[in-house]
Amino acid sequence: MSDSKKQVRAATAYVRALRSGEGSASQRAAAHLASDVEATIGSAKLSGKADVLAHITGNWPNTPVYQMGAWGDPVTDGTGATVEAEFPAFGAGPARATLTFTFNEADEIATVEEAYAGGPRPEPQKEIPLVARGMINTALSNGTPMVVAYVDEAGVPQL
Are 118 and 58 a contacting pair, CB within 8 Å? Predict the structure, then answer.
């Protein structure tokens, strides 16, 4: 018989590691992963504890998006758990995520499916939005590298 509290703890530990990329969070998540765990992230498939831990450890391109996201609590249904998330608009970053977990008899994560949905395409702007201005204005002082591109009046991209 499954223990929904263990499953909630396992899903929570996985999400914390994915969101932060911190080694300590990944170590806590490792205790909840089956040795033969499989993860599906879009069309990519990972097999085994080491590969899944590598995926949820470290800073990846979407880590800042995950950190800024609003993550729901795990919801169990007797067969697994699901976690939903929504993210602020970050260019090509995801707008929503659904993580679906299944568990083995020991309530370890046996499979996880990470499904991401993009948001609507950004509308063209005549001016730089205020939020972007703030990021640009503080880029030098916080050590953020920048590349700026735009389309000029003739429709020619400029870098």
Answer: no
